[in-house]
Design brief:
With 373 residues, the chain is an alpha+beta fold. Helix content is 66%, strand content 10%.
Length: 373
């Protein structure tokens, strides 16, 4: 996963937390505080049906907006329509106040519409929220002007209310955006560091594998090549030729271990068989059953005995891979000498039989897929 994608996921989760918080704040504000104010000022509203209708309309807008927001289904057009409807409800509620009561103890819709703007327009450009707050304030100023109530005291109270209420709402909107950006950037940095660590681990793995291969070449192949170069080993001797064939097959297996193939074990056996076929040995490779994913170390142990037998084969070899629910078996039958049995392929279960009459060697290595009961 790229840092940008990870940052988007974290920003989305952070946004969900903010959305839940907004839904809770608006719910408590409208269903709690507004309800108490409507009940307290109920006798002075005229007509009372307008106040009740505005409160009910805002409740519906709040419910619809909250559900859509929590489901991440609040589109731009729907958000604007609901915000406009809340402003209309504010006009209806303000019209029911007593003269000059737009910012009195019985007024409740002005602050509520501001929080509804936070609920509906938080994910929209900031200018949309500012426009709603400005229009909401203009409604209040218009009703005060119509009631000829814009004296110095009222204007001071209005400015203080705008500064406190709208200021808090705009500050909250700004901080949410800043925290969202900070969370995204922090996550991208963390994802980038994780990617660097993963690359470093991969490089270390490649380096370790290269050292293992070099160690193998140094321990197994270098003495053979040095002996041939210093003429201490005679390439005409059968033992030397078999040894060279074994190391050549092991090198081919080593080179193909990291190939991306669906069946690495068969791929490595095929590479080993190629070495024998170059000596004129006719190799048949058969497989039965679905091969599981096996570690490279297990594949090496399974194929080591087969390499020994094919290296000693004179004219023919048949390699069979059988997969059962309990184990994976690699067997080979070849016209190889019995001396091949001297070198063991490792700690796996090995079966070996030499047919004296047919002059052929049978070798099988098994790897258990599950522990014995």
């Amino acid at each position: 996963m790229t840092p940008g994608v990870v940052g988007g996921v974290v920003a989305s989760r952070f946004g969900k937390v903010v959305d839940v918080g907004l839904v809770a704040v608006v719910g408590v504000w409208h269903l709690g505080l507004d309800t108490l104010r409507v009940l307290r000022g109920w006798p002075v509203y005229e007509p009372q049906a307008a106040a009740a209708g505005a409160w009910l309309a805002l409740t519906v807008i709040q419910t619809v907006g909250s559900v859509l927001l929590l489901r991440s289904a609040l589109g731009a057009r729907t958000a604007r329509v609901l915000a406009g409807a809340s402003l209309v409800a504010c006009v209806v509620a303000t019209a029911a106040y007593p003269p000059g009561g737009a910012i009195s103890d019985v007024s409740w819709a002005w602050n509520t519409v501001g929080w509804f703007g936070m609920l509906l327009l938080m994910r929209r450009p900031l200018w949309e929220l500012i426009t709603l707050l400005a229009a909401n304030t203009a409604v209040t100023v218009g009703f005060l002007a119509a009631d000829d109530a814009l004296d110095h005291v009222t204007v001071s109270r209005l400015l203080a209310s705008v500064y406190v209420t709208a200021g808090v709402q705009l500050t909250f909107a700004y901080l949410v955006r800043q925290l969202d950006v900070a969370a995204r950037k922090a996550t991208e940095v963390a994802a980038g560091q994780a990617d660097l660590l993963a690359r470093a681990a991969a490089d270390e793995t490649v380096h370790t594998e290269r050292r293992r291969r070099y160690e193998y070449l140094r321990v197994r192949v270098e003495p053979l090549l040095r002996g041939l170069a210093e003429r201490r080993l005679d390439p005409g001797e059968g033992v030397v030729r078999r040894r060279a064939a074994v190391e050549a097959a092991r090198l081919r297996r080593l080179f193909v271990e990291t190939d991306d193939t669906p069946h690495p074990l068969l791929h490595e056996l095929r590479a080993c068989a190629d070495v024998a076929e170059r000596r004129g040995v006719r190799v048949t490779l058969l497989s039965y059953g679905d091969l599981p994913d096996l570690p490279a170390s297990v594949r090496r142990e399974l194929t080591d005995g087969t390499i020994l037998v094919m290296a000693g084969a004179a004219t023919r070899a048949r390699v069979t891979v059988v997969t059962t629910p309990g184990d994976v078996a690699v067997g080979v039958v070849a016209d190889a000498p019995p001396e091949t049995l001297v070198e063991s392929p490792g700690p796996l279960t090995v079966s070996a039989v030499y047919d004296q009459e047919e002059k052929q060697l049978w070798w099988e290595t098994r790897w258990p897929l599950r522990p014995a009961p």
